[in-house]
Amino acid sequence: MTSIRPVTPIRSPQWLRADRSRVITRLFVPGQEGFELQESRAGKVLARILEFDEADVRTALDDVLRRHGNRHRNLVGTFRRHADELADRLAPGTELSEARMLLLGAVFTNEYAIEGAALCNPSIVVHPDQSGTPAGSARFVMSVRGIGEGHRSSIGFRTGSVDDAGHVVVDDPSRFATTGATVATLLDAEVFRTELAWLHDGREASDYVLDALDDRFSRTDLDERLEQLQRHRSTRRHAPATMALIRSIADRAYGVEFSDDTVLSERVLWPVSSAEAGGIEDARFVRFVDDDGSVTFYATYTAYSGSRISQQLLATTDFQSFTSAPMVGRAAANKGLALFPRRIRGRYVAMSRSDRESNTIAYSDHPAMWANSVPCQQPTRPWEALQLGNCGPPVETDDGWLVLTHGVGPMRTYRIGAVLLDLDDPTRILGRLTEPLLGQADDERDGYVPNVVYSCGAFLHADNLVLPFGVGDAAIRVATVPLPELLGALRA
Known about the structure:
The protein is an alpha+beta fold. The protein is 20% helix and 34% strand. The strands form eight sheets. Strands 1, 24, 25, 26, 27 and 28 form a six-stranded mixed sheet that branches. A hairpin with a 4-residue loop joins strand 18 and strand 19 (321-326). The longest helix has 15 residues, at 54-68. It is globular.
């Protein structure tokens, strides 16, 4: 069933634009900026700092703190941590004054503007804390993709509210931007087995490692077993390649924790693993309610190494502590996988675009493992001739699963469409819009990437679909769509 009835999204007047003053601190090692094939110059720089007059040291430190101190929550603490990275280069017994130690840390620190180039590709979910929200309104969390120097992306957050009339207000973010502490997390044996089997790795060597471990195990346990394989590798032909592959999978699993004194809009998820070295992109958040009633906020996102992409799965219950784990299997091999918000007939379900141009449905017993998918939606209209994909997790309605889609057509123009899928069998299309739900307005054509409107997820409130969308991969707007009008168009 298809529709020709027009639907008119209502755009909020508020624009969210990139703010170049939102900066995080990073350890800076001269000579290791990524374009010089040489040893770092850390030793020479350290020697210079040790030779400075103490008065010059204090003057330089005062200048740094005056110019940068109000841009970061705990800049002095950052300088101390970064100075500790240089401690092994100091001669035994060397004692530094507090000022010289902090200046040392400052010299090995740089600021990175997380939104220096663009802000785009939002997704939105209901906030886990609704206390104090006015009657008829809902507080939400919006994830955003910030793009900075070198086109490196990170995941940030905004908060806001929507009332029962569909009026949306996005709160101003914190003046600080802060990355969390990376922590170890348990590893899942089945994730390793699935990825190794899909990549046709030698079973003998991988079984030697994994058969000796529990279903969930620590990185320390894994490294000990890999060391044993290293000692006995001579009779296992694929052992070196297997060990490298196992380590690369393990490196993609980690946790991130933010301190209690940070607010949600301050928190920035920054690339951690080598698989993410080129950035983390397009998080699709979903409020997932399991069969026992427990709630987890999942997000699938694209990890970019600089040359290859892979899919990762974020999980959190409070947006303060997160885990990130590799998503594996053929159906998770491309960009844009999105989870349904609950199980269907006891299984996890996802929208996949594993063939790079159409929407498919995948089923799994594990939220990180997606072996295969089945066809669902193919491009049929000129505005989606190049490819189709989802614009975030499906939204459940009484009439079916509402899926926002993106279609790419002439001049690589991205527009947002919609389909309605059967609640029990989401491979069955009940209706689809033949024309875009949302395209570029006259003031939305230009940007970092022109001719693009794109979303990573919407949510329902009081019979309104709240749809945040990126404009030209440069800014963000929010539109609302009356749900009865949209469903009527899909059923027409």
